[in-house]
Amino acid sequence: EADIYQTPRYLVIGTGKKITLECSQTMGHDKMYWYQQDPGMELHLIHYSYGVNSTEKGDLSSESTVSRIRTEHFPLTLESARPSHTSQYLCATVPPRERGTDTQYFGPGTRLTVL
Amino acid sequence: KNQVEQSPQSLIILEGKNCTLQCNYTVSPFSNLRWYKQDTGRGPVSLTIMTFSENTKSNGRYTATLDADTKQSSLHITASQLSDSASYICVVSGSYYGQNFVFGPGTRLSVLP
Predict the structure, then answer these.
(1) Partner-chain contact A43 B98, CB within 8 Å
(2) Looking at the partner chain, which of A31, A45, A106 has a beta carbon nearest the beta carbon of B44?
(3) DSSP structure string for B1-20
(4) Omega prior to A108 cis, within 30 of 0
(5) What was the pLDDT predicted at A52?
(6) How far apart are CA B106 and CA B93, in angstroms?
């Protein structure tokens, strides 16, 4: 089982603030993903990375950026938070192909509220 | 368009009863299909995975089926427990490893005592 950590778990901030959500993993998984999920709704892909220095935009990538300088870390940054960003943010990883199937392992999530 | 649909949207059953959740998909090409369980406020956890050649897979009280011809899958839960209350998400993967995950909207299951 993958060890995926997300911090903070809960965050309440004001409109216009710049925030960074952290995601880290200790399993050496090369593929990492960020999803946004509103309560009771489906997951939407924001960004993904297939390895160091590799980042791609998903369906909801606007207004946010990511970086992948190290395998272990995949931080998500909102340059200017808005109430529409209020949601749960989930980080996920997939192990390298040689280790098995492409099952996604999810972190516990960050619940963000923008006032 | 690649799409995954799930039914019902929500379901309420009594503890000890069985239930079946449905998943229809139009994802092509197809690699595999997974069912995830997501507890409220937590990340999803994988329950089962099935490839094109598999038509049934069990994990304890959870049994998933796959009909690749009709592009349908089901998740059957036997002797439900209160801890089964969660959202169950069907996810279909395309041909390329680690790419093209298409998520269904989930079925919200509530198990009552």
Answers:
(1) no
(2) A106
(3) ---EEEE-SEEEEETT--EE
(4) no
(5) 96
(6) 16
Say yes or no: B87 contacts chain A, CB-CB below 8 A. yes
Shortest Cα–Cα distance, A61 to chain B (Å): 16
For testing the chain B interface, which of A3, A89, A101, A105 should be mutated: the one with the most B CBs within 10 Å?
Answer: A101
pLDDT tens column, B65-79: 999 999 999 999 999
More confident position, A23 or A100: A23
How far is residue A114's CA from residue A74's CA, in Å, rounded to a whole number? Answer: 22
Q: How many residues does chain B have?
A: 113
Rounded Cα gap, residues B86 and B106, in angstroms: 10
pLDDT at site A2? 57
Closest approach of B25 to chain A, Cα-based (Å): 15
Kindly write down the DSSP assignment for every residue of B37-48, as one continuous string.
EE-TTS--EEEE
State mean pLDDT over A70-96: 95
Average pLDDT value over all residues in chain B: 93
Question: Residue A81: CB partners within 8 Å, gap ≥ 6?
Answer: A13, A14, A15, A16, A17, A18, A19, A112, A114
pLDDT at B96: 72
Q: What's the token pair of residue A16?
A: 């216009």
